[in-house]
Amino acid sequence: MASDATPITTVAELLRVCKLEHIQLTGSTLSKLDALLTEGRPKLLEHLKESGVSKLPERQGLCNRIAKAKREGLLTPAANEVTAVASPAANEVPAVASPAAGTVDVSDADAAAAPPAPSLPPPPPRDSSRPLRVLCLHSFRANGKILKQQMMLTGQEKFFEGLVEFDFLDAPYECTAEDEAKQYDVMKKYFPTTNYGAYREWFNAFDVPKGGTGPPYVTYARCESAIAAVESALKGASPPFDGLMGFSQGGSLAMWIATLQARGKLSPEVPTLRFLWVQSARLPRDHSCKGLYDTPLSLPTFITYVEDDDDVKPHETRALITKIDPPPLIVTRGKGGHGVMPMRAVSAEDQAKIKEFLQAHR
User: Fold this and answer.
1) N-term to C-term CA, the chain
2) pLDDT value at position 10?
3) Does a structural domain hold residue 117?
4) Residue 296 falls inside a structural domain
5) 236 with 344, same domain?
6) Range(s) of the domain holding residue 224
7) How many domains does the chain contain in total?
8) Is 99 inside any structural domain?
9) Cα separation of 58 and 55, whole Å?
10) Full-prediction pTM beyond 0.90?
11) Residue 75 falls in which region: left (phi positive, over 0), alpha (psi -120 to 50) or beta
12) Most confident of 9-18, 42-51, 84-93
């Protein structure tokens, strides 16, 4: 069987890696499967079912393996690939029998146990006279311009002036009119698309039936393209970004990206991050993250959240905090709901701690 580090160039190789050589996968090329995954996991699952993969755990396993190979840069469809029909030779018996539906965990078996943290290169040298450079990831159905305005209105932009230079990245997916109709009225009132541009999503969560008697699990549509967009922005930055910040869904993605780098699952061309800032976010819930946080993230981090947040519950942010060691700097406020932290609500003592935290990375 091919190792995890072996590039996957054809559907036949994908089936061998997943120990599913007994399957006849009709009407598919690796390029097509890759494109369907980019559109969203439900689309790929539906296509696999139509192509002859009758068992849900097998479809899920194939999806997991494609996504994993794509994240690691090992999905390289052959230029001359033809539509594949894979089946074993007449005298060949699959090395591992296919599991019965409902008896297998939906996550990639290789992701079930957290690998030992690789030794990452140190962050690149920096000019201590310039501000820290931070890439910012907006919330669900917002965009970079909206996050910039939120940070200005809450005093964050002024508070960090001269210390941090913020760059704002737009999610690759632009919301449709149907998506936009579901946006909160308060967002449409204060951040209309006529002034701020289209709303965007990094990913969208769906419950997927597990099969058998198992409960449904959560999958994120388009998470691969979201990760790739952030990876590309980090990789191409000059000077390099020192830190990553995200609010709400962007905070979950920032945590995900930082942990992927810590596990050696981002491109080695991405400079090592110096720190992370998460605002009112939960741990990513996509099933592919199973096992990713078994070993805590060892990256200097500070967390801001609000105790009466009804969108991202405080216990969800606190669960994220437990996955970081050494413990992060935590700044909370009692009331304010789900939003970017207003600096006027932060005590002078906590403001000093934040600036001290950031100065340490200059």
Assistant:
1) 47
2) 84
3) no
4) yes
5) yes
6) 132-359
7) 2
8) no
9) 5
10) no
11) beta
12) 9-18
